[in-house]
Every structure is written in structure tokens, then in C-alpha cells.
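does this look right to u?? magnesium ion version
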Amino acid sequence: MSETPANPVPQHVAIIMDGNGRWAKERRLPRLAGHNAGAKAVERTLKAAQKAGVKILTLYAFSTENWARPADEIDGLFKLLEQTLSRYTKEAEKYGIRLLVSGAKEPLPPSVLEKIEYAVTSTAAHSSFTLNLALNYGARQEIVHAVNALLREGKKEITMQDISQHLYQPDLPDPELIIRTSGEERLSNFLLWQAAYSEFYFSPVLWPDFDEAEFEKSIAAYRTRKRRFGGV
Ligand code: IPE
Ligand code: IPE
Ligand code: MG
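got this back:
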């Protein structure tokens, strides 16, 4: 008989979706073909997460450091992000999903900002599932943003709770599980504050190949972990 897993299904899973470029390179395709295939993996993963009983999915879609990429890749990525955002807004409205977008608004193009604003406000009352897109996101920037907000409030001394309450998504619990695909094992400026006690799962699969089976594998691995939080 198999042992009872140590942990329940995580409420909040965060994913560093990496490997689109390498997936395209393996096929001698332009990097954008990899990003397009990656968008399909987002769809599969969203379904898999809902099926598994996860309630919140945070996806790292574009980092504050990704501006260092060639202009044509950035243009293509933002076109894809806009399309994806519009499609998900419709789906989210239909299926009761709440959309959140985390990241710095500067220097996002106005057309993207409008779509974000609409996506977030039109789905704000939904509660069955939350999809949080980390877009132009940097964790150090997020912490600095929180501290600056606290300074503007006139705080002279701050607590950990103050910082937590001034992050981009103060209402979300910390992710119990952070997955990174493509075999890279680093955070790349993702959720530095929230990851204090997250479990990590590094999948060798390139993001465009990520599917329900691989998602389930990561959840199963998480469930066997012994989380100690500094205790015994
Ligand atoms: C992840 O895939 C997508 C983004 C960072 C936008 P990459 O584009 O980083 O793919 P690799 O790491 O070059 O394979
Ligand atoms: C992290 O991936 C950012 C996203 C997945 C959006 P990168 O591919 O940009 O990270 P590095 O440069 O390999 O650390
Ligand atoms: Mg990468």
C-alpha cells in the first residue's frame, strides 16, 4: 500500500515557464515559434491545475530583465501576451476565473495596460480560480515598490507584515510550490519574498512540452516533501 502523502494539494503554485527558445532552436525555428508553443502549454497547465484542485496559479510570463532581449522578440512576445490576455479575459468571464497581473506598469505600452486593467476589473468578483500573470515582474522591484509605498505612508519603521501587505498581490498566500521548467535551477528574480518557505520542483521538460502529466508529477513530488518551517 502506498503511503499517505505528507501534504495536501497546494493551494498556490507558481511556475517559471522556461525553455521556449531552446525548444524552437531544437526545431530550427525562430524563438517566437517557441513562445507560441509556450502559450499552448499555458492553456494545458491552467486546465491541469484546476483539475488537480489547485486554486491559484502564478505564471512568470515576462521579467524586468527580459527587456535585454532583441527588439523583434520583445515585440512578438508582447503581441502574443496581448492576444493571450484578451482570450483569457473572455474565458475567465465565462468560467468564473479571476485574473491578476503582477509587475511594474512602467514601461508597458498603453494598449497592454488597457487590456490588463479590463481583464482585472471585469473578473475581480470571480472566486473559483485565480490566474496571476507575472508580467514585467521583478521581485527586487516589487520589494522596493512596497517599501516606497510604506515611506509615502510616513512609516519610520516597518514590519514583515507591512511588506507583505504592500506587495503587488497582498491577498494571495505564498506559493507552497514553485516549478521551473527546462532544467535551469534558479529564481531569476521571481517571488523572492514569497518563496521563503516554498518547495521547489525543477522539471527537465522545456516549457512548450509541459503538460498535465508533468504538472501532476510536480504536485505528487510536492506532496511527499517534509516541510519543517524551521521546526522538526
Ligand atoms: C521562457 O523561455 C519565456 C520567457 C522568458 C519570456 P525563454 O525564451 O527564456 O527560453 P530559453 O531559456 O531561451 O530556452
Ligand atoms: C525567467 O526566465 C523569466 C521568465 C520565465 C519569464 P529567463 O530565461 O529570462 O531567465 P534567465 O535569464 O535564464 O535567468
Ligand atoms: Mg530562458
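The CA atoms of residues 3 and 164 lie 36 Å apart. idk if thats expected tbh
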